[in-house]
Design a protein that fits this description.
The complex is a heterodimer of chains A (about 475) and B (about 500).
Chain A: H1 11-29, H2 35-55, E1 60-62, E2 67-69, H3 71-93, H4 103-120, H5 125-143, H6 150-181, H7 186-195, H8 201-214, H9 226-233, H10 236-261, H11 266-288, H12 294-315, H13 318-348, H14 360-363, H15 365-379, H16 385-399, H17 403-428, H18 442-460, H19 463-476
Antiparallel strand pairs in A: 1-2
Chain B: H1 5-21, H2 28-52, E1 61-69, E2 74-80, H3 82-101, H4 109-128, H5 132-153, H6 162-195, H7 202-208, H8 212-227, H9 238-245, H10 248-273, H11 275-301, H12 306-326, H13 330-361, H14 377-390, H15 397-410, H16 414-439, H17 456-474, H18 477-502
Helix pairs in contact in B: 1-2, 1-4, 2-3, 2-4, 3-4, 3-10, 3-13, 3-17, 3-18, 4-5, 4-10, 5-6, 5-10, 6-8, 6-9, 8-10, 8-11, 9-10, 9-12, 10-11, 10-12, 10-13, 11-12, 11-16, 11-18, 12-13, 12-15, 12-16, 13-14, 13-15, 13-17, 13-18, 14-16, 14-17, 15-16, 15-17
Classes of the chains: A mainly alpha (about 475), B mainly alpha (about 500).
């Protein structure tokens, strides 16, 4: 059955790709004179695809062992599509490009989405690499889109250089793995590893190179340095997409590699991974303490959050896998909310310094409340989404016997609370930077409310989502 | 009662907050009345519990249980024993007074009441929850709003800004909570790995019991984690500055109720789940609490700001609670819980009154005040009653509480008991000095314009709290019986743990 070219397995990816082509084609037809039509096509199309992705859920393997669609792939596809939809809404509201709203902006994001979706259903290192490159190359352009600004250029160059280096790591690792096992198929590699009596050092080097290289996507140490600069310099919607979509893509690959492909040699790499985990948590949280730019702050916060997620990778149990997926779903809603606020706020106030948010509660209660919910959820305050995600992660880590890691995470959560509360303080306590109220239109308000509601529901009524992510996590092993 | 009374008590304030969310910000009085209504009904229902609880059957009653996440063995499980009811009553009384006291807040009224009501939901939740996840959830829910409540509506003092105080409080309490969380999760994981079925139900975990080594290992996590909020010396430093910076109603809740969460959690989780661990570790606590009582008292004596005086006196008084917990006798434990109640009401009264005159004087430094009873006779009298209760005057609930603690602790811990007796003298010294300094002596002419509490709305919260202090001072029987019905089985469990504990060393 692996030989079948079952088109239905990749129909959703194909639809996203076609939407991307359609967006570019429409723009060509109108010669760039009707950005509103392009924009609406992208948003409506993506909204439809989100609905379709929640209605359909066919799993199976095919395309000569290149593609495997299981519950985990389906879960991640939904994450990517929801993220893309919200990012498109942000793109349509953002003024980062000075009122320009080019079709390629949407087109590239759509192609990046295709790449993300394929990472979720990759069953072969070849698919993995192609999907990853489609995603990364689209982002090289997207990140550098703010090319009229120095910071935007810096972001683009940094992302390109570090991204290329990490790609080299992945390729090299891939070569080692191929050399040691003679196969690029996830299943075959995993079973070879299971058979081998002793570990091949080449294989171990390959595995570690790949895991570390993939760490670039989720901004884990040592490939984390791009995050603050890119978050600051790139346009806000792109950053939002990076912070949830691209991160989730890296995560699904890391989970597949750690939980199934390289599971047999886990004792060999788990120490390195725990060092990376601890370093990532501390780097992110300590770095964030002194930030004065909200996007940089979220960059560091993104590093720290990646650190929490990596704990689940270290524990490597069904519980920890479920916890990671749960955390990710909450993180999606939370981060999209935070960036949505930034998009709306920066329409009125230029620059992204935290101090410009002073007294926001008196200028726009809805934006202030949204930012409050987002920050508290990121900090892990109940009853919000971030709390239950952290609860599950710490629980899974303890169940797996890593009590010390749970204590490290607890220390980090307290540290993080400080900088998240600094933002809250600026918004609610400090006197307003200006008296003018900030208007938020009804449709944007609806988006903000939707995110807040999602954060609350994920934080309080956990069972439906938890059962879903658990089913997905089981298939990862 | 078939009616799910506990969830209703808890969710009414949250429902009030939800309703307020949809009001326009300008409807200030409607917002305030909604808050009064929601906590008023909660108070009424809490009082009903007092009469409907069956003392003879004892144990946990009014139970509601809804499976929440079955895969993880987590359920929404609420129920109260005698201790829980007393704490619910305390919370309901303090917040009822608190919403009246915060009437004077004019800035961001809507946000203020939403946060206040959410916080109360969290506190109610902790006192009734029988599931680890929800316990932690409600605990954090009662801590987190504190930051904004203090940072937005608080007042900075000469030494500390309100933002600093709020941040210090939040970080300390969250750190404690997380340490406790790690301990709780170790228990959850251990129990599950032994039986193969994970459950976070506190009663089931308690019935299954833990092996003594685990108990001795985990007890410090849970004890220290929650001792931060008690607050136990040397982790108390967040507390007085937090009190001082908070607005009146928040100080009332903070000192009156929030600090009791710690002792309650130690009883429910530390003593209830880990009796062997408790028997092994609590003797140290009996001596640490001397620092609370004596050192806290001396620090209070040297303070100039009345809120700092009452703040340090709170950590001094919570030393009695710790001593009662460590005392290892039914009488001492009764005293500890009764102290939590009495101190909660008394300190809420004092902070409410301080808030009342601070709103007009804008200073709380004792030396700047003086002779205020000429202009504020009602407030003066109420404050004197509070101060006397604080000093353990017979006829107030606090006297009964201190008496029980000292009598109960005497047998096992004579030295701490003597220190506790000295503590009463120290309290009387600084409290009476403060009363004299603020309300008597020559009055600065600039206080000529002060207005006393005259309307029913202004007087109601204070009269209400004073009545509670006096009613339970003269007739403590009802509460003590309730408390004892819960303490007796707990103490029996500790007694039998004593023999087990004797065969294990600490490390």
């Amino acid at each position: 059955m692996n030989g079948e070219s079952d088109f239905s397995l990749i129909a959703l990816e194909a639809a996203v790709f076609l939407l991307g082509i359609a967006v570019l084609a429409l723009d060509m037809v109108f010669r760039g004179s009707r950005p509103a039509i392009v924009r609406r096509t992208a948003i409506t199309g993506m909204a439809l695809l989100v609905v379709v992705s929640f209605l359909s859920g066919k799993s199976g393997a095919g395309w000569y062992g290149m593609i495997l669609v299981d519950s985990a792939s389906i879960f991640f596809r939904r994450i990517f599509l929801v993220a893309a939809l919200f990012v498109f809404i942000m793109m349509s509201r953002s003024r980062d490009l000075g009122g320009r709203d080019p079709a390629e902006y949407y087109g590239l994001a759509l192609f990046a989405t295709v790449g993300m979706m394929f990472t979720a259903s990759a069953a072969n290192f070849m698919t993995l690499f192609m999907a990853l490159e489609l995603l990364t190359i689209s982002f090289y352009v997207l990140v550098a889109y703010n090319r009229d600004e120095l910071l935007g250029l810096e972001a683009g160059v940094k992302y390109l250089i570090i991204g290329t280096v990490s790609t080299a790591f992945i390729l090299l690792g891939l070569a080692f793995v191929y050399g040691a096992t003679g196969s690029l198929d996830f299943g075959v590699v995993a079973s070879r590893l299971g058979e081998a009596g002793k570990t091949d050092p080449l294989l171990l080097v390959g595995a570690v190179l790949m895991l570390v290289g993939l760490g670039f996507k989720i901004s884990a140490v040592p490939f984390h340095t791009w995050a603050p600069d890119v978050y600051q310099g790139a346009t806000t919607p792109v950053v939002a997409f990076l912070s949830v979509g691209s991160k989730a893509a890296g995560l699904v690959l890391l989970m597949r590699l750690a939980f199934s492909v390289f599971l047999a040699i886990r004792p060999e790499w788990v120490l390195i991974l725990s060092v990376v985990t601890v370093a990532t948590m501390f780097y992110g949280n300590l770095g964030a303490l002194s930030q004065t730019n909200i996007k940089r702050l979220l960059g560091y916060s993104g590093i720290a959050q990646a650190g929490y997620l990596l704990m689940g990778l270290v524990a490597a149990t069904v519980e920890s896998g479920s916890a990671m997926l749960y955390y990710l779903a909450g993180y999606l809603a939370t981060n999209l909310l935070a960036f949505m606020v930034i998009v709306v706020f920066s329409r009125t106030v230029k620059g992204h310094s935290i101090s410009s948010y002073a007294g926001l509660a008196r200028r726009s209660p809805i934006l202030a409340a949204s930012l409050l919910v987002a920050m508290l959820s990121l900090a892990g305050v109940p009853p919000l989404a971030g709390f239950f995600g952290k609860f599950l992660l710490i629980d899974a880590v303890i169940k797996a016997g890593y009590t010390w890691l749970a204590v490290v995470a607890a220390l980090n959560v307290v540290t993080a609370l400080y900088y998240y509360l600094q933002v809250v303080k600026t918004v609610y306590v400090l006197p307003p930077a200006a008296e003018t109220p900030i208007e938020v239109d009804t449709s944007t308000k609806a988006v903000l409310y939707a995110c807040m509601l999602a954060i609350l529901v994920i934080g309080v009524f956990q069972e439906p989502l938890y059962d879903a992510v658990r089913t997905a996590a089981v298939t990862l092993f | 009662m078939n009616f799910p009374v506990l969830p209703v008590i808890k969710l009414l304030p949250a429902a009030g907050a939800l309703v307020i969310l949809f009001y326009p910000a300008a409807w200030k009085n409607t917002i305030r009345l909604t808050a009064v209504l929601s906590v008023g009904i909660s108070l009424f229902l809490s009082v009903l519990l007092l009469f409907y609880y069956d003392n003879h059957a004892a144990g946990f009653q009014f139970i509601t249980r809804i499976p929440w996440i079955e895969t993880l063995g987590i359920s929404y499980h609420v129920g109260v024993d005698g201790i829980g009811i007393v704490m619910l009553l305390l919370t309901a009384a303090v917040i009822f007074a608190g919403v009246f006291v915060s009437w004077s807040i004019e800035d961001l009224v809507k946000e203020h009441y939403i946060l206040l009501l959410l916080l109360v939901t969290g506190v109610f939740g902790v006192f009734m929850t029988l599931d680890l996840l929800f316990f932690y959830l409600f605990y954090e829910l009662s801590v987190a709003p504190m930051y904004l409540l203090i940072a937005i509506w608080g007042s900075s003092s000469k030494e500390y800004t309100k933002e600093y105080a709020a941040m210090k409080l939040t970080l300390y309490l969250t750190m404690g909570a997380l340490i406790a969380l790690v301990g709780l999760l170790i228990l959850y994981a251990t129990a599950g790995s032994v039986t193969g079925v994970y459950t976070s139900d506190i009663l089931e975990l308690g019935a299954a019991g833990f092996d003594p080594r685990t108990q001795i290992f985990v007890f410090p996590f849970i004890f220290l984690g929650f001792a931060v909020i008690v607050p136990m010396w040397p982790f108390h430093t967040w507390s007085p500055i937090g009190h001082a910076a908070a607005p009146a109603a928040v100080s009332m809740l903070h000192a009156g109720v929030l600090m009791k969460l710690g002792a309650f959690a130690i009883i429910r989780l530390g003593l209830g789940l880990l009796p062997v661990g408790a028997v092994k570790w609590l003797p140290f606590v009996a001596f640490i609490c001397i620092f609370n009582i004596i050192y806290g008292g001396y620090v209070a004596m040297s303070q100039k700001d009345i809120k700092f005086i009452v703040g340090y006196s709170s950590s001094s008084h919570m030393g009695y609670v710790l001593l009662g917990l460590a005392g290892m006798s039914v009488v001492a434990m009764n005293g500890a819980v009764f102290m939590m109640f009495a101190h909660g009401i008394m300190t809420a009264l004092l902070f409410g009154l301080i808030g009342f005159f601070y709103n007009q004087t804008h200073t709380r430094v004792v030396d700047d005040l003086g002779g205020l009873s000429k202009k504020l006779p009602f407030v003066g009298v109420a404050f004197i009653i509070g101060a006397l209760a604080s000093s353990g005057l017979p006829g107030t609930a606090n006297f009964i509480a201190e008496l029980l603690v000292i009598l109960g602790a005497w047998k096992n811990y004579p030295i701490p008991a003597i220190a506790a007796t000295l503590g009463i003298v120290i309290t009387a010294t600084y409290m009476l000095r403060a009363v004299a300094g603020i309300f008597f002596g020559p009055m600065d002419p600039k206080w000529e314009g002060l207005k006393d509490a005259v309307s029913i709305r202004e007087r109601l919260p204070f009269v209400f709290l004073i009545l509670i202090l006096i009613i339970f001072g003269f007739g403590p029987g009802m509460l003590v019986d309730l408390i004892e019905s819960a303490v007796t089985p707990l103490m029996a469990q500790l007694e039998s743990a004593r023999t087990v504990a004797a065969t294990y060393s600490l490390f």
